[in-house]
């Protein structure tokens, strides 16, 4: 979202294609306790999924010769998980017309807005498998704490009562 | 093509840095974006691996926190001004989108004095920042945050490590002052330092040592069960738009950039996609 | 040998055993321990025990058991069948340690080296015989590591038993030779019928001896590197040969206990704030720090 210049004016808007939210197919997600240094296609269904075992204290699998132990995490009620993907820059005059009918901020600025970008959801999820290195992540896992944020945020940002 | 949903960068009222927010123009709502970021994580997403393991949370934010930044800035001129002259920003011109949010007049009552009668001709209201009103408004924010901290069983004790070994109800043993301090700290993440200090004095809290970095808190006691949000989320559900979480897809190239000399390269942290699906 | 349990799950440990001959519960027995497949980078390692009453040792010797390495595969198979037929006085038990178990043990946060794994497995099998009621009087073990320390440890663990740990025990003592045959037969069969946990197409089985210095094995490893997952779990990831191929030909993976030059320590809360030289004006509230949350400044 930043431009190369130091004090760049942040004009860019990243439009989320609403149709992609409607149509996003469900995805299977695993959060691993290691950083794979690249993002790329990977045969998860051939190498990883078939190796998952239900152990006495939860799920077990291994990755790169290391033992992982895991558990299912659900997205809190009221939220939906989406996998988002950059869908490129605006191509002026060639943009598709999906979902623009209810737009109350029409394209009067069109010529100026060619620095805008689009993203879209490629998938949705309602939970994921959380893996720990050799131990089950458990209730103290940071990401579990993070998932409690929306309910606290709702309280902080609710309108205050009138006097 | 434009959708009603867009991410823009606006000034963060706490840090003053550019920060991502999400507008839902259809529902006329503003969201802040928090990102879960911990070392040594990656995603498997279907048949792919995604470095970084980021998880973004989009949650509604009270736009008054952002407006307050501009109202305080404009107050240096010491006069009543119409909102569209207040909310201007050379660095973050998208701030004008804030003006499209609903019920601004009602919101602004909490933090400004207003005049509307004199210039009724152009139907503009004129506002002036009021520190007194703002502090009272923030006090209410702190109070409702305290209530939520209690229902959500957040461990607010400063003695985190000492209490981490107690399993059950240490939350009930936390002192009221701990809750207020903690809530003050949370609300302070949405206001400038100066205002945070004023609020601290107003609430008669001890000197905010809490704002010092890193309390010794490796073990976090969290509520055992995710607590249902008190807020009714169904109102975000219309048009299939829910509070949104997402995975940040980064390019392989971006990852590589971290190791590469960045000079002369444009836009290092621009975008996520592994593959750009440019549609025409 | 019925290795069906191994087929069902080739990711952990699989124990097989013969019925205990009734006489072994009555008379003092001699028990041999040996292993097969310790060195290879591929497939499981098998530990076996074989036992018979001291009074029947001559009958066991009469089978002409010998160090399994000196026998052909068919001779080993024939001898194993013979031992089965002599089930009225010869008993055996074995543990198949999957390559995945070996990898995850050796690569664990707390490193569990192959010697310890071997010692513990051997000890476990002797204990298993005792638990089954075998009257073990003497134990003969082919050494792993230094024979003296190993012998001391075993002797301490089994004070009532006369323990002998010796190099080349598999050639010296028929009961150890018998154990080595059990282990080798199981290992060969497990490797031959290896049930890959992964869904792999057109996997070629021409991996040579499985020993790291075999060019065929090395070529097979190189051919079957998967950039993200590395190898199938048939491979012992903990072997240097496997690791150096991964370093060169697979994507990098960082664990919190990975040793790197720039690491400040495991799981540091503040580490990402110090990236670059930029100092944040204020850290986020501890609520956010404890949950790894921060305001997004980029997408």
Automatic annotation (TrEMBL), chain A:
<protein>
    <submittedName>
        <fullName>Ribonuclease H2 subunit C</fullName>
    </submittedName>
</protein>
<dbReference type="GO" id="GO:0032299">
    <property type="term" value="C:ribonuclease H2 complex"/>
</dbReference>
<dbReference type="Pfam" id="PF08615">
    <property type="entry name" value="RNase_H2_suC"/>
</dbReference>
<dbReference type="InterPro" id="IPR013924">
    <property type="entry name" value="RNase_H2_suC"/>
</dbReference>
<dbReference type="GO" id="GO:0006401">
    <property type="term" value="P:RNA catabolic process"/>
</dbReference>
<feature type="compositionally biased region" description="Low complexity">
    <location>
        <begin position="91"/>
        <end position="101"/>
    </location>
</feature>
<feature type="region of interest" description="Disordered">
    <location>
        <begin position="91"/>
        <end position="113"/>
    </location>
</feature>
<dbReference type="InterPro" id="IPR052863">
    <property type="entry name" value="RNase_H2_subunit_C"/>
</dbReference>
Automatic annotation (TrEMBL), chain B:
<dbReference type="Pfam" id="PF09468">
    <property type="entry name" value="RNase_H2-Ydr279"/>
</dbReference>
<dbReference type="GO" id="GO:0006401">
    <property type="term" value="P:RNA catabolic process"/>
</dbReference>
<comment type="function">
    <text>Non catalytic subunit of RNase H2, an endonuclease that specifically degrades the RNA of RNA:DNA hybrids. Participates in DNA replication, possibly by mediating the removal of lagging-strand Okazaki fragment RNA primers during DNA replication. Mediates the excision of single ribonucleotides from DNA:RNA duplexes.</text>
</comment>
<feature type="domain" description="Rnh202 triple barrel">
    <location>
        <begin position="5"/>
        <end position="62"/>
    </location>
</feature>
<feature type="domain" description="Ribonuclease H2 subunit B wHTH">
    <location>
        <begin position="65"/>
        <end position="199"/>
    </location>
</feature>
<dbReference type="Pfam" id="PF17745">
    <property type="entry name" value="Ydr279_N"/>
</dbReference>
<dbReference type="InterPro" id="IPR040456">
    <property type="entry name" value="RNase_H2_suB"/>
</dbReference>
<keyword id="KW-0539">Nucleus</keyword>
<comment type="subunit">
    <text>The RNase H2 complex is a heterotrimer composed of the catalytic subunit RNASEH2A and the non-catalytic subunits RNASEH2B and RNASEH2C.</text>
</comment>
<dbReference type="GO" id="GO:2000001">
    <property type="term" value="P:regulation of DNA damage checkpoint"/>
</dbReference>
<comment type="similarity">
    <text>Belongs to the RNase H2 subunit B family.</text>
</comment>
<dbReference type="InterPro" id="IPR041195">
    <property type="entry name" value="Rnh202_N"/>
</dbReference>
<dbReference type="GO" id="GO:0032299">
    <property type="term" value="C:ribonuclease H2 complex"/>
</dbReference>
<dbReference type="GO" id="GO:0010629">
    <property type="term" value="P:negative regulation of gene expression"/>
</dbReference>
<dbReference type="GO" id="GO:0010467">
    <property type="term" value="P:gene expression"/>
</dbReference>
Automatic annotation (TrEMBL), chain C:
<dbReference type="InterPro" id="IPR036397">
    <property type="entry name" value="RNaseH_sf"/>
</dbReference>
<dbReference type="GO" id="GO:0043137">
    <property type="term" value="P:DNA replication, removal of RNA primer"/>
</dbReference>
<dbReference type="GO" id="GO:0005829">
    <property type="term" value="C:cytosol"/>
</dbReference>
<feature type="binding site">
    <location>
        <position position="35"/>
    </location>
    <ligand>
        <name>a divalent metal cation</name>
    </ligand>
</feature>
<dbReference type="GO" id="GO:0004523">
    <property type="term" value="F:RNA-DNA hybrid ribonuclease activity"/>
</dbReference>
<feature type="domain" description="RNase H type-2">
    <location>
        <begin position="28"/>
        <end position="251"/>
    </location>
</feature>
<dbReference type="InterPro" id="IPR004649">
    <property type="entry name" value="RNase_H2_suA"/>
</dbReference>
<feature type="binding site">
    <location>
        <position position="142"/>
    </location>
    <ligand>
        <name>a divalent metal cation</name>
    </ligand>
</feature>
<keyword id="KW-0378">Hydrolase</keyword>
<comment type="function">
    <text>Endonuclease that specifically degrades the RNA of RNA-DNA hybrids.</text>
</comment>
<dbReference type="InterPro" id="IPR012337">
    <property type="entry name" value="RNaseH-like_sf"/>
</dbReference>
<dbReference type="Pfam" id="PF01351">
    <property type="entry name" value="RNase_HII"/>
</dbReference>
<dbReference type="GO" id="GO:0003723">
    <property type="term" value="F:RNA binding"/>
</dbReference>
<keyword id="KW-0540">Nuclease</keyword>
<dbReference type="GO" id="GO:0046872">
    <property type="term" value="F:metal ion binding"/>
</dbReference>
